[in-house]
Design goal:
Low-confidence stretches: 1-15, 650-658
Strand content: 15-25%
Largest sheet: 7 strands, parallel
CATH superfamily of the largest domain: P-loop containing nucleotide triphosphate hydrolases
Structural class: alpha/beta
Radius of gyration: 28 Å
Helix content: 25-40%
CATH architecture of the largest domain: 3-Layer(aba) Sandwich
Strand order of the largest sheet: 10-11-9-12-13-6-14
CATH topology of the largest domain: Rossmann fold
Number of strands: 30
CATH class of the largest domain: Alpha Beta
Length: about 675
């Protein structure tokens, strides 16, 4: 939408035949999320082209601000006074039309600003990196070796019709093979990385670009290891927030080239402005790291769906589990489920305590025996719920949770016999007493990764013990016998796969107050089980029910279908979409009233709340996908209206608080 108002106007008269630049201003203010018209002075006529960074005057701010030149056009027949562009910052066209269209669509769907999306997609300008890129020769068009193409097609043959579907630009959901693999140089790798690497090689060989989005740097490293030996080095682009500013900007500039490439990155990689995209693939879309925490909070999965619709590329969702979001798309026919030619699954054992065995035993005797037997051949993985030694302490007398006397935070123990420390403020509680019963004795209510490693080290003397968690990152272990104690999601790869996998604390994980906890647990356990060597036992300890059966039978897609069926009559996501409206009571009530007028289809049960939250209130709005565009537009209009009111207070009244209304569409958790 093109908009013109007094922000870009000046009292000076306008000349006929002038060129007009339509600029998106870089501002967090929601009322400035539109295109403003500026006159292009003659001195900048050759430099002011669509896509470049510019500097423009903003009268309301009384200063010159940054912006992106989106489009050029002729003025209306009616003469209007316009301010002139102040400067063109760089000749590089960092905003291709396709990227702006994607950002606009994603922002409108999420009731947000296109500028916020582009801030994630376009890195900050680095002058030295830009000069080096402008001085260098354009990247050559990559050529894939026929041997590598044959390898890729051989891998894709495990899924009949996958190669043809990629060429036809289909939307696919694929269950990755849950077995470990290795590269030619004997490095451990997940078979999922081999599958996505083969898909990328196949599409690049056809002359089109590929975007691969993964949750974290460890997944990215696996994909890089697969592709660096299969495609030309100049065609592999790393897009990662962990990179230095110049390196990330140089990678972004490479994606602007006409030469096809393969981009591997985190959630923001889905916006990479590659030339002629042929495939966008997401690995493990249920991982919360693919959800964008910054406004407007567009999930990488939703951005990929929008991009596929705009570009016509193939779209691939791959994982060891199936999220209910992807399963809904399969159910409505928007995404096609593509099964493997041969079903492969780990050997999962549901382990519980035997008759006469103490129910308090954390590791039942059967799992203990499996670990002892497997250690004769190689490493054993033990997954636990939490890091640390004793993440939770309670009063030994009354079992009341131990809290910090200073701030009320939970106390934890760094090691056996250590002084308890607050998890919030870090203070040591030297003379702690229970406020309920005055006891001074503490008890460890849970065992973290370090305590589990300590206990297993005593149970298996002489065995190497490795701790892998956030404080002790480990990416790979060798094939020698070892007990690898890891928190969920931090499991290292093992050369040849683990000889046994023991999944502890499953009952505690399932107790979390989260709508998607069943999905999350199944994903954590499935990803760990996929690290086991073929035929190695995977023991799930102390868990029964639908989630355990889905893991044991390796029917994650069926579990997702059942979950979706259960949520549909309850009107819970993803059966419906949910928007959270936060702010002062007056602003939230006004937004909800405007919403009901704009979308009369909303029934009486569509709105939950408002309920007190912090200094304001929160309301949840449940709505069907068919009315999503109108709901987002109405809520966005309310946000803009409140922002303008805060900027221009009524006469005699103090200015309203800035951003008195906040909206987030498609909240990841209803408890947020």
């Amino acid at each position: 939408m093109t908009a013109v108002d007094d922000e870009g106007s000046a009292p000076a008269g306008a000349q006929s035949g002038r060129r007009v630049a339509r600029v998106l201003i870089d501002s967090p203010l929601p009322q400035l999320d539109r295109l403003f018209d500026y006159e292009v002075p003659a001195a900048l006529a050759t430099e002011a082209v669509p896509g470049v960074r510019v500097r423009v005057p903003l009268r309301s701010a009384g200063r010159v601000v940054d912006g992106l030149l989106v489009d050029l056009g002729e003025p209306d027949a009616e003469s209007r006074p316009l301010s002139q562009l102040e400067a063109v910052v760089s000749p590089v066209r960092v905003l291709p039309p396709s990227l702006y269209a994607l950002a606009r669509r994603a922002a409108d769907r999420a009731a947000g600003s296109a500028g916020d999306i582009l801030r994630l997609a376009i890195p900050r300008r680095m002058v030295r990196a830009e000069k080096a890129w402008l001085a260098a020769d354009p990247p050559a068009r990559p050529t894939v070796d026929p041997t590598d193409l044959a390898w890729a097609d051989g891998v894709l043959a495990a899924y009949p019709g996958l190669a043809e579907a990629l060429d036809d630009g289909e939307r696919l959901a694929v269950d990755a093979p849950p077995i470990p693999s290795r590269l030619d140089d004997a490095r451990a790798i997940g078979s999922w990385a081999v599958l996505l690497g083969a898909a990328a090689t196949h599409v690049l060989a056809g002359g089109r670009s590929v975007v691969l989005a993964v949750p974290d740097h460890r997944d990215r490293a696996q994909l890089e290891a697969v592709l660096e030996a299969r495609i030309p080095s100049g065609a592999l682009v790393r897009d990662d927030a962990r990179q230095s500013g110049p390196a990330r900007y140089a990678a972004f500039l490479r994606t602007l080239s006409d030469a096809p490439c393969v981009v591997i990155g985190n959630r923001s990689a889905v916006y990479a402005p590659v030339s002629d995209p042929g495939l966008v693939a997401l690995w493990d879309d249920g991982d919360p790291l693919l959800g964008e925490p910054l406004s407007p909070g567009v999930h990488a999965r939703d951005a990929a769906l929008l991009r596929q619709e705009l570009d016509g590329s193939a779209l691939l969702f791959a994982g060891h589990t199936r999220t209910t979001d992807v399963e809904r798309l399969v159910a409505v026919g928007w995404v096609r489920d593509l099964p493997a030619a041969r079903r492969v699954s780990p050997r999962v054992v549901l382990t519980s305590t035997r008759e006469g065995e103490s129910r308090a035993a954390r590791i039942p005797s059967s799992a203990f025996a499996a670990a002892r037997e497997a250690l004769a051949e190689g490493p054993v993985l033990v997954q636990v719920a939490r890091p640390g030694y004793a993440p939770v302490l309670v009063c030994a007398a009354c079992r009341h949770p131990a809290r910090c006397p200073s701030c009320g935070g939970p106390l934890h123990a760094a090691r056996h016999g250590a002084v308890p420390t607050c998890s919030w403020c870090g203070r040591a509680a030297h003379a702690w007493t229970c406020p309920e019963c005055t006891s001074a004795m503490l008890r460890m209510a849970s065992a973290g990764s370090e305590r589990t490693a300590d206990e297993l080290g005593r149970a298996f003397p002489g065995t190497r013990v490795v701790v892998a968690d956030g404080d002790h990152p480990v990416t790979q272990v060798d094939a020698r016998p070892a007990l690898v104690v890891s928190t969920r999601g931090a499991e290292p790869l093992a050369l040849g796969g683990y000889r046994a996998v023991i999944l502890l604390d499953g009952d505690r994980m399932l107790m979390a107050d989260d709508l998607r906890i069943g999905e999350s647990c199944l994903r954590w356990w499935s990803n760990a089980a996929a690290l086991a060597a073929p035929g190695a036992p995977v023991h799930l300890v102390g868990v029964t029910g639908d989630v355990a059966r889905a893991l044991a039978t390796w029917t994650q897609a069926a579990y997702a279908r059942a979950e979706l069926a259960d949520r549909t009559p309850l009107r819970m996501p993803p059966a419906v979409r949910v928007a959270a409206v936060d702010g002062q009571r007056r602003a939230v009530d006004a937004a909800l009233a405007d919403l009901r007028r704009a979308v009369p289809e909303l029934d009486a049960e569509a709105v939950l709340g408002p309920v007190p939250r912090g200094e304001g209130v929160r309301a949840l709005v449940r709505f069907d996908y068919a009315v999503g565009a109108r709901v987002a537009a109405s809520l966005r209009a309310s946000v803009v209206s409140e922002a303008v009111k805060g900027r221009r207070p009524a006469k005699g009244r103090a200015p309203a608080a800035a951003h008195t209304l906040k909206v987030r569409v498609d909240v990841p958790d209803l408890d947020l």
